[in-house]
Description:
The protein is of the alpha/beta class. Helices cover about 40% and strands about 20% of the residues. It is built from 13 helices and 15 strands. The chain has helices spanning about 15-25, 40-55, 65-75, 90, 95-105, 130-135, 150-170, 180, 220-245, 265-275, 295-300, 320-325, 345-355; strands at about 10-15, 30-35, 55-60, 80-85, 110-115, 120-125, 145, 170-175, 185, 245-250, 255-260, 280-285, 290, 305-310, 330-335. The protein is globular and about 70 Å long.
Amino acid sequence: MGTVCCGTNKKVLTKGNYAIANASVIAGCDCYFGYPITPQSEIGEFMSGKMQELKRAYVSAESELAAINMVLGACSTGAKAMTSSSSCAVALMQEALSYATADELPVVLVSVMRGGPGLGNIYPSQGDYFQSTKGGGNGDYKLIVLAPSTVQECVDLTYKAFYLAHKYKNPTVLLADGLLGQMMEPVEFGEYPYPKIDNSDWALTGAKGRDGRVIRSYAPLADNQCKFLDKLYAKYKAIEDNETEWEEINTEDADIILVSFGSTSRNVKTAMKKLREKGIKAGFFRPITLFPFPSKRLAELSEKVKKFITVEVNMGQMVNDVRLAVNGTCPVELINKGVGAPPSADEIVSRIEVL
């Protein structure tokens, strides 16, 4: 299962799920509430031992609904609290995530995707892009969504998820997939790199020496609700302005740009290199934040390339956001596989040659 490696540059060979769990402990996670489901069960397994060892809170909840609502309760006190789950189980959490955005609570959710819809199967998938970026709860709200592509990024973006959740008082999702959760790679943990966020002006701490506070999502008058939504969307705009993150390679002279997210990007990056060797000027673009989505940068790139090609392990989800960003400036094509291991680099190259 491994141990927490904190404050060292030593590399440790570990599985993606254990890397996420390790990183959450180093990030200062006070409370973990979870319910087992493949392919992320190792996160709860690790936390069941480590959290008790560190005298922190761990609960194996009776259901996914219970787990996410326990996180809301803990976050309302200013605690660093998280849960982890997968796909069909995250679907059960959508109402609570809507409430968490309305209550402005710093929930951290790790979603390790599997095949769907419905119960589906345990094979890797990227079919929950819509679920995380568009949301299944009610009303106008946004979740911050971070998508790692390596086990090292599972560590780095877990740290960032806790920081952004508390900085913006907004639920934040670490969106991985079954392949990344089960993959083993050498990683460095090191110290948590972000400053502590002061929550003394909003957290519920028992009204010791101060007036009482209430955290609620209900605004009985339409005007009040409109003002609240304006406040939320001003926050989302600030997140977009300050936190949008992506990776791009060889886009300066590219005729086509391959766009992907998550673990699929590894094969896509290799495909780009193979295309370059064949004389095809290919570039690579990877959104790291799925919300906020790097639409502005894609719009800039669309002015000088001939085509975008998205590669996804789903039936075509992120491709819609790429098309919106490009806004008809150039064509956007899709290479996809519904579920399972992503298309190989050679398969991507051969399909691009046909296109």
